[in-house]
Amino acid sequence: MSGPERITLAMTGASGAQYGLRLLDCLIQEDREVHFLISKAAQLVVATETDVSLPSKPQAMQSFLSEYTGAAPGQIRVYGKEDWMAPVASGSGAPGAMVVVPCSTGTLSAIATGACNNLIERAADVALKERRQLILVPRESPYSSIHLENMLKLSNLGAVIVPASPGFYHQPQTIDDLIDFVVARILNLLNIPQDMLPRWGEHHQVSSDD
């Protein structure tokens, strides 16, 4: 199996809930164990942008998401925002990679300053201090200088910034195609197999006349 077997997936209150839900589904299909964190603002965004209605309690949400994605028992683990005994809160128990998608600019700022006011921020702080993979997917427009400075700081600390900016070279036909573009890029960074998006040049053969 390539890529990390255990991944922390956090969703925060930026637009783009579809990216997080689609990534969750892909990780489950690739037999990864997912430690799932979600902010209250993200739950509101999910309800606004999708037809998914997430239960508010972690245990109920875990059961719902397991059924929603077809996950095996224990494959998805949901933790509350102040569950400081969760594995993701410690370097000795946290998964090898973490993705925050979508990542609000507020969460971006908190991670950049090491705030650790909730479990999402603490889990990201653990990823940084342990030099583990941290992928942040902001969805904001335009970016202020504050946003850009926070991104630069986090990039210098080892995080990977992946703006939710779909490309068009794969000739998307649907909104799902645009969502899959971003999710595929995240999976590529995690070194997890995906067949949603061909790598650049895979289907283009240069002739001798080009």
Q: How would you explain this protein's 3D organization?
A:
The protein has helices at 17-29, 40-49, 58-69, 105-113, 119-129, 145-156, 175-189; strands at 6-11, 33-38, 76-78, 97-103, 133-138, 160-161. Helix 1 (17-29) packs across helix 7 (175-189). The longest helix is centred in the last third of the chain and has 15 residues, at 175-189. The model has no long low-confidence stretch (mean pLDDT 94). It has 210 residues and is α/β, with parallel strands linked by helices. The chain has seven helices and six strands.
Short description:
The chain has seven helices and six strands; from the N terminus they run βαβααββααβαβα. With 210 residues, the chain is of the alpha/beta class.
SSE topology sketch:
Blueprint lengths: L5 E6 L5 H13 L3 E6 L1 H10 L8 H12 L6 E3 L18 E7 L1 H9 L5 H11 L3 E6 L6 H12 L3 E2 L13 H15 L21
Parallel strand pairs: 1-2, 1-4, 2-3, 4-5, 5-6
Helix pairs in contact: 1-7, 4-6
Low-pLDDT residue spans: none
The biggest beta sheet reads: 6 strands, parallel
Q: What's the total count of β strands? A: 6
Strands across the major sheet, in which order? 3-2-1-4-5-6
Question: How far from one another are the termini?
Answer: 39 Å
Features:
single chain, 210 residues, alpha/beta, six-stranded parallel sheet, 7 helices, 6 strands, 39% helix, globular
